[in-house]
């Protein structure tokens, strides 16, 4: 009898048996929760007369969108509105990332300057901008700055080609004439040749130790070919400048004020975080590296290029990508100033009209989820590629 | 003793104010150029700003007609101060909010002053009894008149959302982090999926989900308040971020700590509660406060689902026909208040980091 009891005891207190038991309970609870939500939702949708499914995507949307990168009209389908919103989100994220990187690196390097005043100005920039909510900054740029700009007739102008007024920012458009495609093909060709040259130069240096000025040669090659082909084809690329006609500007590219405000706010806000990332990355390269490089006789600019920057970049890139991702997700604040991004167009207007809350919010969340999972996949590959032998 | 043996000090030019200026601002030609550029930048930014905010501003008056000076019209803020701080909360019940603030202020001060006894009890009071007081005082009950949450607003609402988000998301975040590090595959996978989904989407879609989808999830007749729905969204969202912060701390814990606690026969929960979590949470305090700052800033997003938080109410007050055209003042005031809160938190976290850096 007693052996039986201890057998049962050892069975109940066995680690792996307990493990299976706990997992079954967790799984059961989660399943129960999902079942509860699904049945409730199904009944609620039945009551409200909503059909589930994605049939609504093929239906005419019957609303217009203020800014579209592809052909779109009220007769287009809901799926088209999804694509329009997605492209607008990607557009603002792309421009924002470009400017955030430029401002962020500048401010981050300024903070490390030996010049006291410059370092303090950069520090003030970072401390002020990152402690104020992004939405407030977006509102400020949109309502307090861009909306308060003068009418088109009194636009602020730069070189007679950039105009800023309360209708938006007008910039020159590039017009590609006949023969300009040849220039592009040549440009691509020279870029590919340059990449090949870099690889060859690196291999040769590894083998023989001789350096080849690949950077200067490739720059000369790309720029030279570009300008020579431009001249040879008779300058087929021209600019179309915006012009004041009546009450508004015609020609050129018009950037709506919502886009300008959103890009501005996103870039300035994210730049304050990027500046910290850059500063941290450069400071993390140990001082011994600089000293060792100096003692083997490298010049200051070579120390930066060959020793500091490559090591700092390895630290900077992962958190930098994270900031890019944050910027992309933050671009959803567009909804608050009515820039037609994915959230406003699809999770806003389309949701209001169709009432398909689950499908629409699921699709929108899916897009952002895909972007972030994709980015973390790339980052994992990057980390594996950059890992130095002997590191953990 | 000859003059040559006398100790020679550094040249006058390397000492004092002159030396400092030379070393830090004018060490070579491009540094001098940068300094001049920086001074010019300050010159075009600071004087107009100071003039607008202080020197040319209007501080006394009742209506917009009293704003006769060039600068900011702070009368706009003064006249709407009740709305901005308390929203539409009934005026005769405002003492209830102030009372809650007072309790929070006193017990917070008690915790911040070093070397006082019974801090544990005060902390427990804040975490367990204080929330009950808050609910009763703020929304009504026990003889107090009920105040609907749609009347809540302004800075008060911002503090409620941020406070609830911060207090509730920390324990959930810790549990999620433990779950993700668990050796049981089902628990770990479920927690990972949960964390990654919330972290992968913007808060605004979470709030849209909270206001549009939660009602569909609930059985018939059950209808959550809009504020509670937003709170649930904010709570899960920040819990996922905190979970990753806590996980970082757990991962940084040396393996020996786990092995030693197992060797003395501690069960999983006792090991976590007594050995691992106290040490790893201490390690990530700066990052946790960083997350709190993010939550605080993110509460502004609730205005897109129609709640009037601090920023929302300032936006709203600016559309009042009596006060059109004063959005600059509103935004600058809001920015200043948010900045003070966030900067105070980050300053405190830096101080705490130094104080807690007792190991190694």
Q: Which helices and strands appear, and what pairs or packs with what?
A:
The complex is a heterodimer of chains A (392) and B (360).
Chain A: H1 2-12, H2 15-47, H3 78-111, H4 116-129, H5 134-146, E1 156-158, E2 162-165, E3 168-171, E4 173-176, H6 180-208, H7 214-232, E5 237-240, E6 243-245, E7 248-250, E8 253-255, H8 257-284, H9 287-295, H10 300-330, H11 342-354, H12 357-386
Antiparallel strand pairs in A: 1-2, 2-3, 3-8, 4-5, 6-7
Chain B: H1 16-24, H2 29-55, H3 75-79, H4 81-86, H5 94-112, H6 119-139, H7 154-180, H8 185-200, H9 203-212, H10 214-217, H11 226-252, H12 255-263, H13 268-283, H14 285-298, H15 310-317, H16 327-356
Largest interface in this structure: A-B, 51 and 54 residues
Number of domains of chain A: 3
Let me know the number of strands of chain A. 8
Instruction: Note the gap between the termini of chain B.
Output: 51 Å
Tally the beta strands of chain B.
0
Low-confidence stretches of chain B: none
Helix content of chain B: 55-70%
Strand content of chain B: under 5%
Tell me the structural class of chain B.
mainly alpha
Instruction: Give the helix tally of chain A.
Output: 12
Mean pLDDT of chain A comes to 83
Indicate the structural class of chain A.
alpha+beta
Main sheet characteristics of chain A: 4 strands, antiparallel
The total domain count of chain B is 3
Order of helices and strands of chain A: HHHHHEEEEHHEEEEHHHHH
CATH architectural grouping of the largest domain in chain A: Orthogonal Bundle
CATH first level of the largest domain in chain A:
Mainly Alpha
Helix content of chain A: 55-70%
